[in-house]
Amino acid sequence: MNLIVDAIAWILDPAHYGGPNGIGVRLIEHLWISVVSLVIAGAIAIPAGFLIGHTGTGRAAAVLVSGGVRALPTLGLISILGLSIGIGVQAPIIAFVVLAIPSMLAGAYAGFEAIDRRIVDSARSVGMTEWQIVGRVELPLGLPLLIGGIRSATLQVIATATLAAYISGGGLGSFIFLGLRTNDYTQMLAGSILVIALAIAFEGAFSALQRLVVPAGVRAGQRTKVRSGSPRSAAEAE
Amino acid sequence: MFTAAKGRLAWSAVAVGAVVALAGCASGDPLDEGTSTGEEGAAAPLVVSSQAYYSNEIIAEIYSQALEEGGYEVDREFQIGQREVYLPELEAGNIDVFPEYIGSLLQALDSEAAGGTADEVYADLQEALPGGLTALEPADASDQNSWTVTREFADKYDLTDVASLANVTEPISVGGNSELATRPYGPEALEAQYGVPIAEVKSIEDSGGPLTVKALVDNDIQLANIYTADPNIKANDLVALDDPDGIFFPDNVVTIVSDKVDAGAQKILDEVNAALSADDLVSLNSESVNDQKSADVIAEAWLTENGLI
User: Fold this and answer.
1) What is the pTM of this model?
2) Whose CA, among A2, A67, A166, B6, lies 20 to 30 Å from B247?
């Protein structure tokens, strides 16, 4: 366990916090790159997902595109983009946006699709406009799945944001690259542990948020379902 | 209740996963695959290795094909990281033939080493090598580290050698692999020795490859660590600054061999090195970078051309 103890000691060493290569700056860079990528990806994927989920058209195209995009290797994308737009954070951010879009898109449209059509129809029959249906029915009911999509995109982006350091974008990947290049496994592992800790922190926050956003009515319904755990009562519920 | 239990389960899974993953890293050297038993006898193939650097791999491939031509069995273990990673393997006798560069290797073995001419460095290297390893006669070809600037930047400040970088009045950005910061010729040395005004060191992890060249041409960085045998220097009209004080050691190509490499095999490698000129190395690299040929094709063509196979 020596290497882990060393790595934790490395993280706790105050000497590693100051300066442009310190943990403080690198952590902020990492967060900044991740958050910017996720916000851009969300601005593209969530409205698109809502549109697909609400209208039910374009789903096949969305599945196809997001499936294809998922297969793109991020490091390759960063290198290619870097060769056309230069070093720095832009190329990694575009690559991370591409990485985050499929999960968010899937979360957004799956959230809408999972809603019982009868609920949407009844909303329409009581005279709700399409905007009201989206805002007051589909959005709240689809929110847990959407948050789930954002959660998985966040996890992917935080873990992959280490690659920004490949092209002078900074972030916690700097420790991993420097450690790898100079055989300094302590530093490499310390960098990895910091990324893992960051990912777990976000994971915890999202899992709390995901539970929080379940609408009260749906939560009540879930509780009934939980109580009726036996096959007999499940059959009754059908 | 069900949801809560699922949540706990997920968290335990994360925790267990983390512990397993960390434990995997904990067993000392992650690259250690256990002591190699090294089968005795002539049947054991010679292990030829290379750095994770395309040019080094081409040389290793040339050695491999030449040795195979001479009737030796070769086991190719190419692309093993940077020097810090493969040097322990070399010292442990797990690698038999390795293309190296005299100055960089000497500096890695002896951080106090004095520079000098190629001959002096080669003599020092022979002494510095641990037992069981021999440095064969170096080639004429060299692939040195260099501090490289664009032609425009060189003209602006009248730059010819590294010392003239002191003429630069604006703070500059320096680019190269992240390990540059730890090297004796790194940005800190430039600042201390020549008073070069350095604003920022940007890590670009492609070993002076296309991204580094692009950054230099774009003026994102003004000074880059690029190898002198890189065809990009010529293609992009870059200027590799002279190094009169020898902050970079001469880096002629040299073959490091283990005791398993017998006289016959050494003779083959000596012949290859004798034929490998500086221009040859640049054109070999160019075939890889510009023509996108694979190492084995380039190696075979060069060996055939020089009548070695």
Assistant:
1) 0.78
2) A166
